Batch of 3 targets.
Target 1
Amino acid sequence: MIVSLGLGALLAQSPLDIVLQDPALQGAVVGVVVMDPKGTVRYDRNGDVRMVPASNQKLLTGAFALHRLPANQRFETRFHADSRGVWIDAPGDPLMTRDDLREIRRRLGRYAGRRVYVRPSFDVKWPDSWEWDDLPYYYAPVVSSFTVDRGVYRVESDGKQLRLSPEGYGDAVRRVTGPRETYRYLDARREWVISTPSFPNAGPGQRLAIPDPLAAAASTLGRYAGRTRDPLPGAPILTWTGRTVADAVIECLPPSDNYLAEALFLAAARQDAATIDYPSARREMGRFLTEVVGVAAGDFRISDGSGLSRQNFVTPRAMAQLLHWAETQPFAAQWEAAQARPGSGTLRNQLSGIDFAGKTGTLSGVVSLSGYVRARSGERFRVVCIANHTVVPAAQVRAVWERVMRLVADDQVPRVGD
């Protein structure tokens, strides 16, 4: 254990020490850092231990995006045309919807319905560190700069057969009997197969990752003809202006949207480059953390933007540094608006009565909670709680984190010199 408050704090346990003896944390790797508004660490338990952050990774990504891309910058997609068809220059609009694409088709006029070629700035399928059994589901969408509805559709039923909604984009779905509930996509048949042992209604309501969202989006405009790296013909005949970077960050963090996180991660890393890949994006975020935020190079390892990968590592102290830095930046208002709060999003049933703004994170064996807590004294603390290798239900660990937050809110934090 590392304590930043001197010998006196080593001789007596604080209320935070007592809370962290909860049996739910027995055998787990636990990191907790409490930093005051001046940036002074007031409590530190394993603050320099690299840990898997789960979706707390999105805090790094959100700050990276707001720093690299102006918060009020709007995403643009440009459409060119010639005798061969429509050519789309897609640097990335992660908030593009099916309704947007329908309106774009209308505006294309006589060019609608022709061959459609797409030049994406990133089209990486998935990060190489995502686990294969996550990939069919909505929380592990295909990552492409041209997409529709964040690369997700839903299984619906009309009472007789299953269908994909709001549109299948040529994909079908059927249900079969099997030993356990699984979802498999058969590329050759463009068909989802839902295997279920005993639930005749299994499937409806399940959200699935569209196998090729770039092709799906293009198919709403015409006949999808493929990806291209060729120069685009002439000046754009249409420029579609979407929503802002801040909108994407605000819609990413509270509901913990993995697609938006990956798209923001890659877009922020790309800047003015024509294309971007994950190795380059990892290097760029690393530069941001060390050169801009001031985090030590050994305090993190970046694998993806969302935290779905178990190959991300960050120390609790580095996360507290990021929270402290972000609150002082020109985009502070947008950053504040992007934090989850008790009673909504992933904090719908947590932290009632606590003035908290921040981010949750959960993977199997990982439970994290990081953000800002305003104490009765008026001080606003940065609090980071991460547990790895947990074996109890996540709700039990969340209950411990809630007790930590309540102690901070009640001014039960050691003071410098105590």
Target 2
Amino acid sequence: MRITVGTFNLSNLFSRWNFKGKITKDDYKLKSTVEYKFTDSENYKIRTYKGKLVEEKPEKDRALLTKRIKDMDIDILAVQEVEDIDTLKSFNRESLNNLYPYQVLVEGNDPRLIDVGLLSKYPIGAVISWQKATHPSKPNDPVFGRDLLEVEIMDKERSKILFTLFNNHLKSNYIPWDAKDKEKEAQESNEQRKRQAETTAKIIKARMGAGSSFIILGDMNDTEKSEWIEPFTKDPELRLTNALLNATETRPAKPDDPPPPTTVWTHRYKPTGKSAEYLLYDQIWLSQPLADKLREAKIDRRTKHSGDGSDHDPAWIKLEI
């Protein structure tokens, strides 16, 4: 049996609606205090982040996401940056024409309202959220900014577990433009990502016995060789394999100067006044039983430097189970 598994950061997939009505910039003002102005007497639940209105994902970007996902047509897709389960379900229903019968998302910790989730053509078994997990160095704070979402994938008859997925979205590298000490902020972000990697390894070793079939995937916000995520990528007990090591592109990258140094990348970042960086932020790691079943790895390449519907490119693998 062949089964395809992938990961895709959908880049702020927010719903069209703020509860009972659609909110536009004309309905919202930001002064020294926040002022809400409405054209009728309806009650609204308004999404804001750092004093700014959180708006729906533009329709043209939703359409691009839809086309990419339909073109890939993979069996199981781990997703990141989705507002909530209702948004994921409506996206699957309205945009993907119910391509995926099973959808999973548990509200996480992110103040920007983005969560990790799953779309699957295969039945789902147990679902566990690790959003409340902590690290010994900060025992009173959740270590995951979003969540570590554990999901069992069953066969079509629900007779056995095929493997377990661990969907992650690690600490971002983003540094606020007004940060007083950017180097300190960057170091703190790296240390937080390392704590998340350490916790990921600890949880999976406790949950998965020897010889277990599992996949760690998602947006790691770091390169596959980074020291900050080594606590799970190089853990001698987990013995993981980078499933995208020899991934091929669905199409060549858009020409750049200089060109990407490798074809294995999912995220492009161009610092001001510098050359673009091409990084494998979106990763898929396999336990040894599944590494032996890996048959193919692909990255769907964007057509624009900024990305097609997302600033990340989706990646997926084909397994022979």
Target 3
Amino acid sequence: MCVVEAAAAWHGGVITVAKEESPKVVNDNWGTNFNLISIGIEMTDNREKKHIYPKIQYSSAIELVADICRRYDIKPTRDYILMHKEIDPINRSDPVGEWDQNDFVKEVQSCLLEGGVEYKIQGKPDKVKVTCSLNVRSGPATTFRLSGCRILNKGDKVDVVGYVSGEEVEGNKFWYKSTLGNYFWSGGTDKPILSVVELIGNMTKEEYEVKKAELTSKEAAIEARRLELENAVEMNRKDKEAYELDLNALLALTAESIDEPVVETPAEVVVEPVVEDEPVAEVVVETPVEPVVEAKPELTEEELGWFKKIAAKLGL
């Protein structure tokens, strides 16, 4: 189960090492999620401290790291090739088997200089003829520095001891290794190496056809798996986009329901029907009773005379 190199695999965990004790690449990118700027390689070790890594596994790891360094222009040093326990010593102890990181990095450096697995020519060195001008380099790729005589001219004959798989040029990825330890592209010679089948040595025609069919089948399986992984990544991307669209739509609906004013509907007034057969009681209008004003008693002549006197004295 692999994750494509362009995606984050969350393999590194949390950085728990102190900054002043961290490897250079971690220190230089302090504060950055290390999972976003690194590529992780998982090694099967059965979680045994005395585990010894099989040679084929160890060699494959060397070639893989060398290939990653070559493709991403990563310096093949201890500053950039790390163990999990160097960045998360609290939670991670891997690799747990018998592993020497310094030796491993030296092997990666050697692999880069030598161009990977070397297919040696049987017997004495072979002689190839150059068919066009070729650069001579320190490694099997155009990114390596020019080396030795620097240029081979058309017609030159060179003794070679083997060849390696390197940078593909015009459909040919094999480079010859000279007796001086330099490399030049096999496609520019009279003996271009076009197929890995030709690296196996002396074979009968039947063995050749069987091996060719086997390699062709493996290549097809690898290509099918690559397409499967690409489709899976694309489906994950589409699922994420669909999820985000659904989530945004749900949030929008939720916002609308919160902002919408609540309109209360008035309760319906129930009017009871009037039964026509039932007589309506007659309304009696009461006439207000006028107050009875009692008549004042009349004054006697004597009382009236007395009031007049008083009024005269008062000037009324």
